[in-house]
Amino acid sequence: MISSHEIYLDNSATTQVGQKVAVKVCEMLTDNYGNPSSLHSKGFQAQKVLDETRIQIAQKLSVEDKEIFFTSGGTEANNLALIGTALKRRKMGNKIITSAIEHSSVLEACGYLESLGFEVVYLPVSEEGIVRVEDISNAIDNKTILVSLMYANNEIGTIQPVEKVHTLLKRKKSQAYFHIDAVQAFGKIPFKNTRLQADMISVSAHKIHAPKGVGAIYIKKGTNLIPRQFGGEQQRKIRPGTESTALIAGFGQAVQEMDYGYLLKMQHLNDYLRRQLIQMEDIHINSPENALPYIINFSVANIKSETMVHFLEEKAIYVSSGSACAKGKQSHVLRAMKLPKNLSDTAIRVSFSKYNTTEDIDRLVEALSQGIQTLAKMK
Hints:
Blueprint: E1 7-8, H1 19-30, H2 41-61, E2 68-71, H3 74-89, E3 95-99, H4 104-115, E4 119-123, H5 133-139, E5 144-150, H6 165-171, E6 177-181, H7 193-196, E7 200-204, E8 215-219, H8 245-257, H9 262-278, E9 283-285, E10 295-300, H10 305-314, E11 317-318, H11 332-336, H12 341-344, E12 347-351, H13 358-378
Parallel strand pairs: 1-11, 3-4, 3-5, 5-6, 6-7
Antiparallel strand pairs: 2-8, 7-8, 9-10, 10-12
């Protein structure tokens, strides 16, 4: 558990590894340490754990276990989906549709594909940070080979209309693949691919209390793409290389412990914080009320995000100014929402986990009030 004097509210960046997960990882490192490709009992034991984890993830997504491939995380999964698909299907068309508020692993991959001659459409979002269904529909044409959208945004928590995309593609008689970046949604909101009908889905372990360095991608049977790595027969050459059995086993343990019942607790925490923020002067809430309750983004007075983040850190309260992958750069998400620069520059992201309590929020609000008073005087 997190130390009693610390308040960790940066769970969209990463989560604390669960105790049972850590034990499982240690067991794999010290006892079940065989190479799963080895043709002896140690290898078979390790392979069994991989197979079990693959089944667990597949069951959560309502897909076949043979359609799950392990990666080093969400970034690799997203890169494989976008670049692997584009390079394989470039003779069918050159158009890729995504949104302006995707994770950097999608946006940077799209930038790379543009340098190779692909056309990328970055769909705008509403002031609440949601892609309009009609914009998706209007962008789809006979050159479209891929639509890639995140399920839940990592900075403001907005939930995108991913359940509509398959119907749109079918209506347009499009052969485009559909990819969902579900890194922030997996383990937090229940969803099944029997409803979404995606061709590829990316998930990551360290957002659900498992270790960093491991993730997975669902690739529907019959979906063709070019691998991004080469060498070895592992994972049917889609993602070759010796699997990190310890991290994968930890991922599996965390998947076992996933409980969508926590969604109600997160909604309670989110509502509890919102009620207090609304009563504070110079606070502007950026996340819409119907966003993923695990995340709430708000702007604080005229105090720079980094300044407030460090003030809270001194009180052992850990939040962020946005995506950890942005390394402190101005948020492209808030810019796409057309948020005024003074609000974008002062934005704070709070993200919850099952370990957080209302007492944590009380301490946060108290520290925010102190920070506003203290830092405003220093300007």
